[in-house]
Every structure is written in C-alpha cells, then in structure tokens.
Automatic annotation (TrEMBL):
This is Polysaccharide biosynthesis protein. One of its GO terms (cellular component) is plasma membrane. It is a multi-pass membrane protein. The chain crosses the membrane at residues 20-38, 44-63, 84-106, 112-130, 151-170, 176-198, 219-240, 246-272, 293-315, 321-344, 356-379, 385-404. Keywords: Cell membrane, Membrane, Transmembrane, Transmembrane helix. Its main location: membrane. InterPro entries: Poly_Biosynth_Transport, Polysacc_synth. It is found in: Cell membrane. CDD domains: MATE_Wzx_like. It comes from the Bacteria.
Length: 440
C-alpha cells in the first residue's frame, strides 16, 4: 500500500462519520420539506423525480465505475479518459433528456406544472456530469473529497429547503428547484476537485471511449436493475393511488433508504480499494469482514425502527403522515437483507464483476413488479411495501449465496461475526486507547 493511501479502517471511520452527518442532515431536511408540503406535495415531488432518478442509473452507462477502474489501474492517460468522459456525457445526457422529456410530455404534462417538470429534467444531465467526474476521484482513491461532496449535498438540501421552500414559501416548485440545486452544486464541486488531475486537452480516442463503454455498461445495467427494484413501486402506485398516498409511501421509503447509509459508506470504501487493489483475496477478506461486523449493527437499527416506527413518524412528521409507519415497518425487514448486497456488490463491482447483481436481482425484480400489481389494489401503499420487502429478501440472500460460491466461502463466514472479528475489534480498541493515553 502506497504512503498516500489511507488504511481501510480510517476510510471506513471517516466515511461512516460523513454518512452519519449526511444521514442527520438529510433526515432533518426530509422532515422539514414533508411538513411544509404535506403528503400531496411530497407525493408530487416523488412522482415527478422518480423516472429521472431511475433513468440516471442507466444513462450513467457505467462510466463512473469504468472511469474509476481505468483511472485506478492507470490503463490510459488521464486526459484521454477525461476526453472520453466528456464525449460520452454529451451523448448520454442528450438521449436521457429526450426520453424523460417525451415521457413528461405525454404522461405528466396535463397533471403537473411544467416548471416542476423542467427542474426535474434539467437535474438529469447535472447528475450525470458529477457522477462521471466522481469516477475519476474514485480511481484516485480520493475518499475525503467524495465525503465532502456528500456533506455539501446535505448542506444544499437543508439550506435550500429552509430558504426556498419555507422562508420564500414557494411550495412544490420550490421543492423541485431544490432538487435541481443539489446536482448543480455537486457538479461544480467535482469540476473543481478534478481540475488538478487533468490538463483540459481534448484528446479523444474513440477506442478508449468504446472500451470504457463496454467495460461500464454492465455496471449501468446492474445499477439500473437495482434501482428499478427500489423505485418501480412509486411509478406503479401513481396509477392506483392519489398523490397524497404516494407522499406517505415516499416518506417511509426515504427513511428506509437512509438506514442503508451505513453499508453504502462501507461500500464506497470497498469500491475505491477494489479499483486500485491488485490483490483480490485481500479485498474479499476485507469485504466479508466489514459485512460480518456491520450486519449486527444494521439488524439492531432496523429492529429498533420497526418497534418504534409509529411513535417516530408521529413525533417527527405529524399525524398527517402516520400512514407511513406501517410502510416503514414493512420495508425495514427488506432493508436488513438488501444491506448484504450494499456491501458485497461494490466489492465485486470494484474488481470488475458487476454482473452478479443482475444474476441475483433479475428474478426478484419481476417478482416485485408482479406482486405490486397484486398487492397494491388490495392493500394500497402497504402492499407496495410488502412487495418490495419480499424482493429485497430474495435478492439479498441470493446475492450472498452467489458471492460465497464465487469466492469459495461458507455462507456463515460471509454473514455471521466470529471470534476472530471480536478479537480484532478488541485489539484495535486497545491500540487506539494506548495511543490516546500516550498523547495525553
């Protein structure tokens, strides 16, 4: 490991600390905007932005991941990679805007304000831009810079809600504008952070762009499949329930997604390490150890939320959102399982094997879609939550089995904490304590 590379432990601690701060800031912002807009306004924002957010994962083309891989392995000069990224960004953004714009025109143009739709549409190329540039920082192992971007994102969200939605009272259009401001701010930030690594010479090499696309598209396909599993229910709900019910569902699902910030932080570190590491076995050992140690914590958090969801929803969001409590309780069961893939998938993707996510989640996706059409007419938003949880559990367990088989590991060695893990944790705590005593 080079002198400039941080240890995995340090990266996990800093990333986890960042995620905690982001979790708090995002959660506070979500509470504020939900209370201000009410369930119907919240539902409109969720319904309008769901397709751009879903399509982003496919329009990304996996360039973020392939840029990280090519940069980390130093396969091509950085300016050649950068030129390919810019070219692909122009192409993918144009196509994505065309697709989403067409959908908005025919499906939503008569239902929602075009100002809200335009903010959602304009956010898509900005998200793609900062996503592509994030890949370069991943490849350079700049975890600190990426952590700062997450804090910046939470800050823009919070102050945007306070100023635009609350103080100025701009309502749903203001909420949509804040969703546009977030990717705009992050795109500018990544442009500044990547600047020292590139010379801004356009050195486009078609073969490099094609190789990045071929390398990256499996990542995009895998991510799109995962995103469909997470978001398809909101699209289906729009045809069965009013916006106020979608607003209730979005609050429950947003909280559920916030819970998996812990494994996402760990996955962030594993992805960067995998992109720069040439020792696959060491990366595998690190990934499963991280999962074994974090999994009990995730379970405890989810069980706590299941037990106190009605109280938490009533206290934070008010009586108007009490219907979100059951949605949240149902989703938490699935979150426990989906956190398995949230840790293990970035490890495999970082080593160039994203297709295992497709193998694990293609069947659960179709199960999710089918159950949504069965459960939603019968049980409304609770049916959508139940369908999602069933697909999460099947997908998470399947991914763990596939991972264990690929790496020749016992399933218990992937999922369950063992004596060696406890001893290592104890040794780390003792070492940190002794260092602290010496400094004091």
């Amino acid at each position: 490991m080079g002198k400039k590379q941080r240890s995995t432990l340090f990266d996990i601690i800093t990333s986890f600390g960042t995620r905690i701060a982001v979790l708090f800031g995002t959660f506070l912002s979500s509470v504020l905007i939900a209370r201000i807009l009410g369930p119907e306004g919240q539902g409109i924002i969720a319904a309008v932005f769901v397709l751009p957010n879903m399509l982003y994962s496919l329009a990304d083309l996996g360039i973020r991941q392939s840029a990280a891989y090519f940069t980390g392995q130093k396969l091509y000069p950085i300016d050649t990679i950068h030129s390919a990224i810019l070219t692909l960004w122009v192409i993918s953004s144009s196509l994505a805007v065309l697709v989403v714009g067409t959908y908005f025109y025919f499906s939503m143009g008569n239902d929602y304000s075009w100002l809200v739709l335009l903010f959602a549409l304009a956010s898509l190329p900005l998200k793609l831009f900062h996503g592509y540039y994030k890949g370069i920082l991943h490849g350079k192992n700049q975890i600190g810079a990426i952590n700062i971007s997450e804090l910046l994102k939470a800050g823009i969200y919070f102050f945007g809600v306070v100023i635009v939605v609350w103080a100025l009272g701009l309502g749903v259009p203001g909420g949509a504008f804040v969703q546009f401001l977030i990717p705009l701010g992050i795109a500018i930030y990544y442009l500044i952070r990547v600047n020292p690594y590139v010379n801004w010479k356009y050195e486009f090499d078609k073969s490099v762009a094609v190789k990045m696309l071929m390398k990256g598209f499996p990542y995009a396909l895998a991510l799109f499949l995962l995103t469909l599993n997470y978001k398809i229910d909101i699209i289906i709900l729009r045809y069965f329930v009013p916006e106020a019910q979608i607003g209730l569902y979005s609050v429950g699902s947003n909280i559920a997604e916030l819970v998996w910030q812990l494994p996402m932080a760990i996955g962030l570190v594993l992805f960067a390490k995998g992109a720069t590491s040439r020792n696959s076995q060491a990366t595998v050992r690190r990934a499963v150890k991280v999962l074994r140690v974090s999994f009990p914590i995730i379970i405890i958090i989810c069980l706590f939320i299941i037990a106190f969801a009605p109280i938490l929803i009533r206290l934070l969001y008010g009586e108007a959102y009490l219907g979100s409590a059951t949605v949240l309780q149902l989703l938490m069961v699935g979150v426990i399982a989906i956190c398995i893939s949230k840790v293990l998938h970035p490890d495999l993707a970082g080593r160039g094997y994203p297709l295992y996510a497709i193998k694990a989640f293609i069947v659960p996706l179709f199960i999710n879609i089918g159950l949504n059409f069965i459960f939603i007419p019968a049980w409304g938003i609770n049916g959508a939550a139940a369908a999602s949880t069933i697909s999460y559990v099947i997908g998470g367990i399947t991914f763990a089995i596939l991972y264990a088989r690929r790496e020749n590991l016992m399933l218990k060695d992937v999922l369950f904490i063992n004596k060696e893990d406890f001893e290592e944790i104890k040794a780390i705590i003792v070492k940190k304590y002794r260092n602290f005593r010496k400094k004091s």
